[in-house]
Write a structure and sequence with these properties.
The structure is a single chain. 26% of the residues lie in helices and 26% in strands. It is of the alpha/beta class. The protein has a nine-stranded mixed beta sheet with strand order 1-2-3-13-4-14-18-16-17, sandwiched between helices. Strands 11-12-20-19-15 form a five-stranded mixed beta sheet. A three-stranded antiparallel beta sheet has the order 5-6-9, with no helix packed on it. Strand 11 and strand 12 form a beta hairpin. Helix 1 crosses helix 10, helix 2 runs parallel beside helix 5 and helix 5 packs across helix 10. The longest helix is centred in the last third of the chain and has 21 residues. It is globular, with a radius of gyration of 24 Å.
């Protein structure tokens, strides 16, 4: 896959993945195409060396793995972790709202978004809908209503002359998307008012605008009354695209962190387990943007549970597996901003299209160690893959990601890295069109060559009694 082809493939993945559920579904399509088989957490696993497997949780988290042809319980794993969620507006579980003739949809701010960028954008709707069948059984369905349904309009400058000095708004009262106009009631009959007690007894759809429910029902091919619940995200209607004088940029939503989710899927799909004695593992978690502390976030026991089953439930073999394994925590990086250069550390200014970037932080906001960084540098050197590094300024706060969380939970050696971008957490972000290609190359090399380089090295040599 060439550089431009990789960029276009990534853009297609982003356009088809406006929610964590769609990101997982699109990943599964790729894995299925190369022979991966679904596992159920609640069932027994009959794993075979050379086998290709995946499992999901909540339909928004995915773990996939390729067992080496010579894999045995206790052998090491090369893991890549990324996340499927991004800051967005999510439809509240009681979203019905009207104001001066407008139908609106109440939403909740998910994660740390730059919410000002959500104003005056055409917004679509996507996520998971729970549908009830005739016999009462419930099943989840994907919904992607790819139309400009909603919009949060700004206030005209004539009514707020200070708007260019400081754009301030109340997230509860002024960040409410408009869905449409209220239709006049025929016959002028007054609707019966519903009391508080009666509201609690009403079906799920009672608490949402009827037009919203009817559009979802039409999209899913079901009745409105069959909708028993949903988890819906608002998303930018405008698709991602190549941009710049030489099309060297990607302008698209959710690059944090679908760039690395996509690159991990591509690397795993291209990985061949023939002759390998290790396992290549890809973990795509939900809820990173809100702290990862959920049953399907990186803070769950899910990673340990999967490793335990790869080791046949033997605690000693599990410990050996962890000691022989390594995790790349892949999440986006702040590229140096041409208009805010002073916000970046002078000696660490990663550029778009400069390659995947390692993250360092002595206070353990990132999990990268000296040996881990050296091992990755050696992997990149042997494969002629560009690699950058980043540290934040002492007078600037440092974010974090799933790396330290998984490392502390599992004791896995871990390194944090990602592709540089601008406008992180905006509704529409800006990345390099060359970096996705480099990410796939690095992650594929990690799956196939890292174990050998790791085996040639020793991080404990400095405390070897024979050498002290």
């Amino acid at each position: 896959m060439a550089i431009r082809e990789a960029a276009c493939d990534l853009i297609g993945y982003i356009n088809r993945s406006p929610s964590p559920y769609h990101a997982v579904a699109e990943a599964i399509k790729v894995l299925h195409s190369v022979g991966y088989k679904r596992l159920e957490e609640s069932a027994d696993w009959n794993l075979s060396p050379g086998g290709l497997y995946y499992l999901t949780r909540n339909a928004s988290t995915l773990i996939a793995f390729a067992l080496g042809e010579k894999f045995e319980a206790g052998n090491g794993c090369q893991l890549i972790g990324a996340h499927t969620d991004s800051p967005c507006l999510r439809v509240k579980q009681r979203s019905k709202h009207t104001s001066v003739g407008y139908n609106q949809v109440r939403t909740e701010c998910y994660g740390g978004g730059i919410w000002a960028t959500w104003f005056d954008r055409d917004l679509k709707l996507a996520g998971k809908v729970i549908v009830r069948s005739e016999n009462g059984a419930l099943a989840s369905r994907l919904a992607h209503v790819d139309k400009p349904l909603l919009r949060v309009p700004t206030l005209a400058i004539h009514l707020d002359r200070s708007v260019n000095e400081a754009f301030k708004f109340n997230k509860e009262e002024q960040l409410i998307p408009v869905l449409g106009m209220i239709e006049k009631e025929l016959g002028g009959e007054e609707k019966k008012k519903v009391t508080g007690v009666e509201k609690q007894q009403q079906p799920f759809t009672f608490h949402h605008n009827s037009k919203l429910i009817s559009m979802l029902a039409e999209h899913l091919g079901c009745k409105g009354d069959d909708i028993a619940g949903f988890d819906l995200c608002l998303a930018d209607f405008m698709p991602g695209n190549l941009a710049g004088a030489d099309e060297e940029f990607i302008n698209a939503p959710r690059q944090d962190n679908l760039v690395n989710a996509w690159a991990g899927v591509q690397a795993l799909a291209q990985h061949c387990p023939t002759g390998s004695s290790t396992a290549a593992v890809l973990c795509l978690y939900d809820h990173e943007e809100v702290g990862s502390q959920s049953a399907h976030g990186a803070g769950t026991e899910l990673t340990n549970l999967v490793l335990d089953r790869l080791c046949g439930g033997d605690s000693a073999l599990h410990a050996q597996c962890v000691a022989r394994s390594f995790l790349l925590s892949a999440d986006q990086v702040h590229g140096v901003h041409p208009n805010y250069v002073s916000k970046h550390e002078t000696n660490f200014q990663p550029s778009l299209n400069g390659g995947v970037t390692m993250k360092h932080n002595s206070n353990q906001r990132y999990a990268t160690t000296a040996m881990g960084a050296s091992l990755l540098h050696e992997l990149a050197r042997r494969n002629d893959i560009p690699l950058q590094e980043v540290m934040v300024r002492n007078d600037s706060p440092c974010g974090s990601t799933i790396g330290p969380i998984i490392s502390a939970k599992t004791a896995l050696r871990t390194l944090d890295l990602g592709c540089p971008q601008l406008s992180m957490h905006s509704i529409r972000e800006m990345g390099g069109a060359h970096d996705p290609y480099h990410a796939v190359a690095l992650y594929k090399a990690f799956y196939e060559q890292f174990a050998a380089i790791d085996g040639e090295s020793s991080d404990e040599a400095c405390v070897d009694p024979a050498l002290i």
